[in-house]
Amino acid sequence: KYNNWIIHERCGIGSRKEDLMINVMSETTCSSYLEPNIKLLSIDPSSKIIKKENTKIETLNYLFSNKYKLKKNTVLKIDTQGYDKFVLKGASSILKKILFVQLELSIDPLYVNETNYEDMIKYMRKEGFIIWKIGGVIENLKGKTMAFDIVFKNSHY
User: Fold this and answer.
1) What is the reported pLDDT for 40?
2) 112 partner at 20 to 30 Å CA-CA among 69, 72, 81, 100?
3) For 21, which DSSP code?
């Protein structure tokens, strides 16, 4: 529909090229390479794993050194249900060329082995990014904030 869009073959994005099983959830926006924990159920009690699918994982480093070119003022939005740090590790060589990175971070991890929000903020600072904007709050059924969107700006721009 959009002439300037490029649709890449279906794959996952992570820290290295590999095959990995994804947990497909009944609420598909909650699907993740990580196992959900009980806190995810406090947001959506009906959410459960309905199947697992084998997927090919690529890295953003590979894709943007072999298939695509980064454009000026690139914004990278990562919404990978707790898998964000793996995606960022696979983007280590291109991060310095990205203007903004948007992540969805959980206050209390919703997935097993999810990196907590404080460590993710430290990681982004180490990579040269500053907090630019916070918003997009996700609450559980009792109204407790469980996750939020955060935009980081490359401090070298």
Assistant:
1) 84
2) 100
3) E
Spell out the residues 6+ positions from residue 148 whose beta carbon is closer than 8 angstroms to its own.
104, 105, 107, 117, 134, 135, 136, 137, 138
Phi, then psi, of 40 in degrees rounded to 5: -65, -35
128 phi-psi bin (left φ>0, alpha ψ -120 to 50, beta other): left
First to last CA, the chain: 32
Per DSSP, the three-state class of 119 is helix
pTM of the model: 0.91
Contact at 8 Å (CB) between 149 and 104? yes
Read off φ and ψ for residue 44, nearest 5 degrees: -140, 95
Q: Tell me the C-alpha distance between 72 and 4, whole Å.
A: 15
Phi, psi of 5 (to 5 degrees): -85, 140
Place of tokens 């980081």: 152
For the chain, 157 residues long, the average pLDDT of each consecutive 10-residue run is 85 97 92 91 84 97 93 93 96 96 94 94 97 92 90 94
> Contact 108/131 with Cβ under 8 angstroms?
no
At 124, list the tokens: 């982004």
Distance CA 109, CA 113 (A): 8
The angle subtended at Cα 9 by Cα 102 and Cα 25, nearest 5°, is 65
